[in-house]
Specification:
The chain folds into 2 domains: 2-52 and 262-406, no CATH class; 66-248, no CATH class. A 6-stranded mixed barrel has the order 2-3-8-5-7-6. The chain has a two-stranded antiparallel ribbon with strand order 11-12. It is 55% helix and 20% strand. The protein is built from 15 helices and 12 strands. The chain is of the alpha+beta class. The two termini are 31 Å apart.
């Protein structure tokens, strides 16, 4: 019975080709708009996440418990020795790409008569390179372990000092005993990231130089980089077992718990996409409902004839709902396919974007069509077209047979 109803609905849609084309076109337009807008949001969220991971955070961070809350005020209290964790075991885990230590410190940097504050990181350049893919050295050369007294400066910090590659600077910080420690370093390069505020105050040095400056051993963080971000939760459980958090006094934190700006971006785009989805649903429902009501008025005599030869009112209603569902299936399928093709073409060209707030340079955006987004667009088309057909279908089923037949005379 259902197959027969849809076959009859298809014939009716084919008989009224112009009206069907208008309804299907509205659905296709809505689905394309939703998928492209959602795909842009998906790409922005994905890009922000990957940029956050590959500029500073990594996928997992192993630190002493309380480091994030009190580490800035008392960095020396949150150093841990290299022997407390077997990094080889972590590196051997599936999906782990790199493990690298960091030392966090802060102080003053001077060049000539200019002195400004900085936030520094001591790193192992060879293993840090994989984690800090989005820390781009645009002048000079990247940091290397062979540069024992080398330092790379953030773009904004270098501008404040008037420093270029090859310049000599002096780093000053406090020691565990409360004294002052200073070293002379040579600027090897200047870098930038996606976060301008970080570039305005950050510098990096080889980890031995950071320990020499602080007059303390150990590390503040152990950064774990994975081959795929989607493996974060899986590897997190394995690393926590290896680290034995309750006994060691350490904690393993996934990147998402540290990425406040990323979470704000996700919430923003979720709200925007939800609003766009609601507007598109309203447009589809209103346009289709209007077209189907016109169809009911034009087919009044046909509806009366159907009921006169034995069609029940609920069967008439089913027929019109079937027409709406059929148009939703067609429009949803065509809309998703067209949106995917447009997304590929637009991504190949790129969408020039100005620098966002807090960023120092623009970029070319793309459109990322995921399976979930395509399914969402298809379901929106199907549900909206079904809802749009309910009232016209009800009106058609409530026509009086005598009045409907009189229209035919």
């Amino acid at each position: 019975m259902i197959g027969e109803m849809f076959a009859l609905a298809w014939r009716n849609l084919a008989r009224h080709g112009r009206r069907t084309a208008v309804c299907v076109g509205a659905i296709v337009f809505g689905v394309v708009a939703l998928v492209l807008a959602g795909g842009f949001a998906e790409w922005m969220i994905w890009m922000e996440g990957e940029s956050t991971i590959h500029s500073r955070l990594g996928h997992l961070q192993i630190v002493k418990r309380g480091f994030y809350e009190h580490g800035v005020a008392d960095p020396h209290a949150y150093l841990f020795g290299d022997r407390i964790i077997d990094t080889q075991q972590i590196t051997a885990l599936p999906h782990v790409k790199a493990v690298t230590p960091r030392v966090a410190f802060s102080g003053l940097i001077s060049r000539g008569d200019t002195t400004v504050s900085f936030i520094g990181e001591g790193v192992v350049p060879e293993t840090e390179a994989a984690v800090s893919r989005d820390v781009i050295v645009h002048a000079g050369e990247p940091l290397a372990s062979s540069h024992r007294n080398g330092v790379i400066l953030g773009k904004g910090l270098a501008a404040s000092l008037g420093a270029e590659p090859g310049a000599l600077v002096v780093l000053l910080t406090t020691t565990p005993g409360g004294g002052v420690s200073a070293v002379e370093a040579q600027v090897r390069g200047i870098f930038h990231t996606a976060i301008k505020a970080f570039d305005d105050s950050a510098l990096r040095v080889p980890i031995p130089l950071a320990r020499k400056l602080m007059k303390a051993g150990g590390s503040h963080q152990l950064i774990v980089l994975l081959t795929e971000t989607k493996r974060t939760d899986e590897v997190l459980r394995q690393v926590r077992r290896l680290v034995d958090e309750p006994q060691s006094g350490l904690q393993v934190t996934p990147w998402i718990d540290l990425a406040d700006f990323y979470k704000a971006v996700v919430d923003l785009f979720a709200s925007q996409t939800g609003f766009v989805r609601a507007i598109i649903a309203i447009i589809i429902v209103m346009s289709m409902s209007n077209a189907l009501m016109t169809s009911v008025r034009e087919r009044t005599s046909e509806i009366g004839t159907m009921m006169a030869i034995g069609f029940r009112r609920h069967e008439v209603m089913q027929l019109f709902v079937s027409e709406g569902v059929t148009m939703g299936l067609i429009g949803g399928t065509l809309g998703v396919l067209l949106a995917y093709l447009l997304a590929v073409a637009i991504s190949a060209v790129g969408i020039p974007m100005p620098p966002a707030p807090g960023m120092d340079h623009g970029f070319d955006a793309e459109i990322r069509v995921t399976l979930g987004l395509a399914a969402s667009g298809f379901l929106l088309a199907l549900v909206s077209s079904t809802l749009a057909s309910l009232y016209p279908a009800w009106k058609a089923s409530r026509l009086a047979i005598v009045d409907a037949l009189r229209r035919a005379l």
